[in-house]
Design goal:
Blueprint (H helix, E strand, L loop, with lengths): L7 H5 L7 E2 L18 E2 L5 E8 L13 E6 L2 E3 L2 E6 L5 E10 L6 E11 L2 E12 L1
Length: about 130
C-alpha cells in the first residue's frame, strides 16, 4: 500500500497538535473512533466521529477531493464537515471528516460503518456496534 497513506491517526485517534486547524470545525462531546470504540455509550449524550487521512509532508495530492471518509450509522449515510489541517507553511497535511452528534443517539444498539477512499479507491472499511444505554 502507499507509504503516504498513514492510518495511524485513524487507529489511535491521537495526534499532537503540530499544525493549526484551517476552519476550526467545532467538535461536540468526546470522540468515538471506529478502531477503538466503546462497547457502551450514554444514550442522548453528545459525541463526534472524526476520521480521515494524513500524508507525508509534501505529498498533499493524497488529499484531493477523491480522498475522503464516509460514515454510516445503522446503514444510513451521515453528512460530515471536512476539517483540514495545514502546516506552518500552508501545506495541507491532513483531511479529516467530522460528524457531530449534538443530541447523541437514542437508547439501543447502533452500528457505525466507515469507508476510507484514497484517490477514489476504497482502501479501508471498519464497522463497530455500540450499545447506547
Amino acid at each position: 500500500m502507499h507509504r503516504i497513506l498513514v492510518l495511524v491517526v485513524l487507529v489511535t485517534g491521537v495526534l499532537a497538535p503540530v499544525a493549526a486547524r484551517a476552519d476550526g470545525v467545532p467538535e461536540v462531546g468526546p470522540r468515538i473512533g471506529l478502531f477503538a470504540a466503546p462497547a457502551t455509550f450514554p444514550a442522548g449524550a453528545p459525541f463526534h466521529v472524526e476520521q480521515g487521512f494524513t500524508c507525508d509532508a509534501g505529498r498533499a495530492a493524497c488529499l484531493s477531493g477523491l480522498t475522503h471518509f464516509d460514515l454510516y450509522v445503522d446503514g444510513q449515510p451521515v453528512p460530515a464537515a471536512t476539517d483540514p489541517t495545514f502546516g506552518d507553511n500552508g501545506t495541507l497535511l491532513e483531511k479529516l471528516d467530522l460528524t457531530n452528534f449534538g443530541d447523541g443517539l437514542p437508547a439501543g444498539t447502533h452500528t457505525f460503518s466507515g469507508e476510507w477512499y484514497y484517490l477514489g479507491r476504497l482502501v479501508q472499511t471498519q464497522a463497530v456496534t455500540i450499545d447506547f444505554v
